[in-house]
Amino acid sequence: MAFVELVHSGKVRDVYTDGGDIILVASDRVSVYDVVLPTPIPDKGRLLTALSMWWFTQLSDVIDNHVISATDVPPEFAGRAVRCRALDMIPVECVARGYLTGSGLRDYQATGQVSGIVLPPGLTDGAKLPEPIFTPSTKAPVGEHDEPIDFARVEAQVGSATAAALRDVTIEIYRRSRDIAAERGIIVADTKLEFGRDADGGLVLADELLTSDSSRFWPAESWQPGAPQQSFDKQFLRDWATSSGWDGTEPAPQVPADVVAATRQRYVDAYERLTGQTWS
Known about the structure:
Elements: E1 4-9, E2 13-18, E3 21-26, E4 31-32, E5 35-36, H1 44-58, E6 67-69, E7 81-85, E8 88-89, E9 94-99, H2 102-111, E10 113-114, E11 117-118, E12 128-134, H3 151-158, H4 160-182, E13 186-197, E14 203-206, E15 215-219, H5 235-243, H6 257-275
Antiparallel strand pairs: 1-2, 2-3, 3-7, 4-5, 6-7, 8-13, 9-12, 9-13, 10-11, 13-14, 13-15
Helix pairs in contact: 1-6, 3-4
């Protein structure tokens, strides 16, 4: 008889096996600068799971995904878990950027490039890029930092054909999600995706999809290049962490209750504006 077994605990998600399937469980943990903070964000796991499932439905015609069921999961994980197909995961974080901010902005200011892609001069924080760009990174273990890499390194790691396929589908998912979100008054500034191969070698979209953990969501009505943007994601928490004086290494500080509440509200706002559903 099959039983559920924990096989990996990540920064936010725990991975279990159940027979031949994977149970992907979203926790209320939150990470900043790739360090897990000691203070959870209430309902975060449920919000991430619900929003991911909504996006998987919206984008199901772009590429196959790993979802089997969000209801056929162990009762203790109900609402924050997804039953998935087991995949051979590709060791690259696939990032699409339509706007310049965060680490991409820092790289641009230093070199005029992001992941080896030369961008026009004079761009400022929050600027819209001429076209979405593919800016992959490494997949770091818990406690270590993802590092940006260029397309040539992706080719060296997974082969030219797979690298091109990852780039093309990442940009297509970004374009589609950007347009869907724009109808709801949200700018998707950037997003991070993960992919794997199924038993037949097909490329499959995996992990979470377009959540407030994996994406930057900005209210379109207040977007103004040249300064940090208001956001519906964990940028508020990153800003608090930076202003607290924490240097980004272990151990991370406890998060004050008001910052926890404000962060949770941003996750709720993103879910409600994107899906049109009320969070309860």
